[in-house]
Amino acid sequence: MMISKTFSSCLDGFDGQLVVLEASRQNSLPQIHITGLPGTVVQESRERVKASLNHLGFDTPSKKILIHLSPAETKKTGSHFDFAIAMNVLSADGFFPPKKIEKCAFLGELTLSGELRPVSHFIPLLEALLKHPTIEKILVPCDNQLESGLFRSDKVFHCRDLKEAIRFCFYDEPILSVPQANQHHPPKNQPLFPFIEQVVGQEYAKRVLTIALAGCHPLLLEGPPGSGKTLLSHSAASLLPSLNDEELVEVSRVYSFFGEQREGNRIAPFRSPHHSISSAAFLGGGSSQVMPGELSLAHRGLLFLDELPEFRRDAIEGLREPLQSGEIHLHRVSKSILLPARFSLIAAMNPCPCGYSNSNHERCSCSSEAIRSYRKKISGPILDRFPLYLWMETSWNQKQESTNTSSETRQLIEATRKKLRELGLSGGGWLRLKAHLDLPSSQLLSKWETKSRASFRRIENILRVSLTTALLDKRDIISKTDLEEAWALRSPESLI
Ligand SMILES: [Zn+2]
Q: How distant, in Å, are the alpha carbons of 72, 112, 162 from that of 52?
């Protein structure tokens, strides 16, 4: 009995997993039979494969073709198995030698006429195949070339249809080159944001925003409506450095779970979900299929939460883990899935439900009880995670001063981030942070450590912010002024 073997992959949580397809022809009524926990869509693949092969003139299956997908215990879902099943049926049914495809892998859904349709969740599926040393050629649909292009691998070949794949694999004919798709298409769902130049006045707020983005320090803005919190936050989009190669793959991977191709688009994500968002859409969810939430969609970009106290409590509390580790665990019955969620965070809030408590210009109409319960929604542990806090006030006589342009500020932010990475201080490194203090700042810090009630986390945050301001100023020694500014910008321990 001849066995034909080839490869494909399936999703396992947020990752791809290799799938081996084995096919054999058996002396029984003509049919395609699939074993190895195929889902409904994979079962239906039998009909699509048969129709497309018949359309190309192959009278198959001539006997029973048994296809087994392993590992058998993993449930296989997705229409992208069509391609591998079709190629495997052809060789198992005796049309072509199985040896020709034993080191090949296939991803793609087939139409009834044998055209290849693009694959969703393509990046993790391709990664699983690229990792496997036995696989020499990976055939994928042309329509996935923006995503496959991120890997610059010479193992990947793009096909328009099954006919082209058959010629390539079994007759060793080259694949006609595919016209390069336009790499510069604008991102979907990404509105145009104002540049920082369009924010009139508010010079200190712009400085704080620059510190926040350069050091990836979460920033909480509080102030009455019309004080410019939203405009300032939206202008942050113009200050985000472009994604590097590694970040581009990470971000594209998250978006591929939505069938959205961001590939070739190096603009960092900017997400601003509405406060009515569900926990699943915010944190991530999905039962059989993982769906990254806003926290992951903002990965390597910026998450802006306007009207923070209006968000669901579990959404607000759910910020803790990603702010700590840059990742979020989704707990499932069988296992826990880890999603990336490393973003810059800006949150904005009104001081009270009507918005005008503490305002110089309008009178607040809220009861003290209403103000209390509103502000209580932001707990101490959450405030602890905002190293930067700024009260913004409407100012009527703004002078339009000359200010840095978006591109100058973005370059400064990029250079500072690069320096921080070189210093290896992006995670941990308390002692190494202290090594950057000069004598007066070191003395000031010791005083705070002994006399203030600030937690370890807060002192560490103050040090981190100080280092960022020093680096923005092109120094790598923290001065007393840096420390004092960071201290002044720390968030209150409680809002009540
Ligand atoms: Zn009020």
A: 26, 5, 8
